[in-house]
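Worked Example 4.2. Read the sequence first, then its structure tokens.
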Amino acid sequence: MTQGSYKVFGSKEKSRRKLARQVRDALGAPDWLESVDVDDTGRVILVLLADPADTAGAEARRIEAEGRAELVAGVHAVTSILTAQKALPTVKLEPAKRRVGKGARLSDEAMQQGAPSQASGIPPIPGIARILVVASAKGGVGKSTIAVNLAAAMAKAGMKVGLLDADVYGPSVPTMLGTQDAQPGTAESKKLVPVIAHGMKTLSIGYLSDPDAPMIWRGPIVMSAITQMLNDAEWGELDILVIDTPPGTGDAQLAIAQRVPVTAAIIVTTPQEVALADVRRGAAMFSKTAVPVLGIVETMSWFEDPAGNRHYLMGEGGGAATAQSLGLPLLGQIPMLQAIREGGDTGQPAALADGEPARIFHDLARTVAIGLDTLESKPAPEIVFED
């Protein structure tokens, strides 16, 4: 509601802003307090700046900040996010090596300066057997649709599934699961309790923020939010955790590759060349960060009219050709089906219904499960897909 050019805030909004001010005042507004947010339930989300070289001091400030915030009247729970303010490595190029043409490139040494080190390994997250990243180097290709329906198909097959929406700037998983109004609980350990949706444990930044407010977060805050949703949540025992990543090859993707024990990734694309060019970049990023890629999933592959004729509106065969050129399998082709779109809009994933869309995601889940099995020497949980 607006009057003239001024926004009129309702009583709930005023109460949230007032409580946020009270929490900030209680903390003394130190320079390491990045932001204070309050949701409709009285949950306070603190974003605290942290020095990577002083983890003990940062943890002490976090404990103190949460304790002070909990004493403020009206605060029902407190969640804090530590941001790692670490300078990124600087790549210096000799004048003779600067980019002067299409064939020029950074040296391998310079490229490695920006790549996360995998030498020491990443410790596993207790209780989570496998972590699958669903990625796309380009937005708008249906990545979240694949992540949600793939996770739903696995849950329908009897697996213990978690779904993490790491797309901080555009969290769409709550909408696709029909959980827009849900709020994660807080355990006695002060960890987040995931929202249960369609038999899956789910977390999303969309559960913790105002859906109409833009996420104006810098890279370190994004990375910290993702790692804390992973490590500071009561996931319990999971056969697989599916992570829906934001599009591109930026901070969030590198944070996941560097700090998360990812089992494998799949890359989602449409058949058109403008998307396929980005897929090649995405595959190269995973290669440099030592994350195995199971293969490529092609979406919007064709539209079939009532007479049974296929129309390749986005191009034909692009996903298969790119997969072949990269030495990767084409895991599946998802046609344009109204039921898939409707399922995402209504919060009822198409994979949970009957008919052709469910069969498509059923087959994709089976293919991905087999691919994950081949990557690991340890026994995998028994997965039974019944036709």
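Now turn to a second chain, presented in exactly the same format:
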Amino acid sequence: MGEFGTGGVVPVRRGVGAVGAVAAAVVLLAGCGSQVAGAAGAGGGPSVAGSGSAGPCGVASASPGPVAKDGVRITAASAACAEYEVTNPGAEAADVTVVFGRSGAAGGVLGNETRTVRDLAPGATGKGRVELDGKGSVLTVVKVRSVPSAEASRPDGPCPASGVRVSADDGDAAMGLRVVGLHLRNCGTATVNLNGYPDLQLLDVGHRPVDGVRLLHGGAQIASGTGADDPPRPLALKPGEGARSTLAWRNTTEAGAGDAVNAPYVRVRVMPGAAPVTVVPELDLGTTGRLGVGAWVREDGQPPATRPPAG
């Protein structure tokens, strides 16, 4: 099912990963009723029972209003669905992504639901809906991420004016090692020439630049076999062709090494001076202070096929 924001209907992605930290808004769903409540924290949280006018999901909306987290507000709920609102508090249009976590009434994890409202104007509110199984569950707002719409990564959207699409994959994680791929696709009509490494700027959860992290060329200083060690070489990407860069890091935390660094956002410039694209690889760098960055290589790992000269 889609959702409606100021940008229209947006496809819904359904995940099966474990639910993250419990967020500030929780909907307790039962077969005959519902309640919108604040998650209990160290000092407890406010609780608002549904007692307003009937909501679109068939039960009363909370009054005077449910607890909000990072601009997301659950407004109505039943055993079958939950309605929510997303508000953009920023000063520019944004693509806002919300990860909802679902768990069973008995506490078992059911998975995650991801929704994105695109082109949400400053101060505007978009509305959406989460379908549920009707058997009773607990819905939590796991996290909220927003990027300026002008810099948003939209792998399936229209080709940007730059002629290239940039995106980040879900990556791999094992024994504290993280590897994420940055992907570039020439969606334009002209050849795209690359030679070297992407230009990166790390941003924290408040979109502030992250200082003190060394960006290393290649992944050898992080771990072997990450795929980030190919040397830079000139690439000429024809329309439809792609390239990949690899990010590698460790999330280990050492006592006395300072605070752990988290950089959910990365502004990517395909080359110095190019228009930035903001991706959300969720860099949990621990206290290591290092990020390995691979050179651009062809996405298929092979040079393009060449035609024999005419005649």
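Notes for the reader: The two ends are 55 Å apart (CA to CA). Residues 3-150 form one domain.
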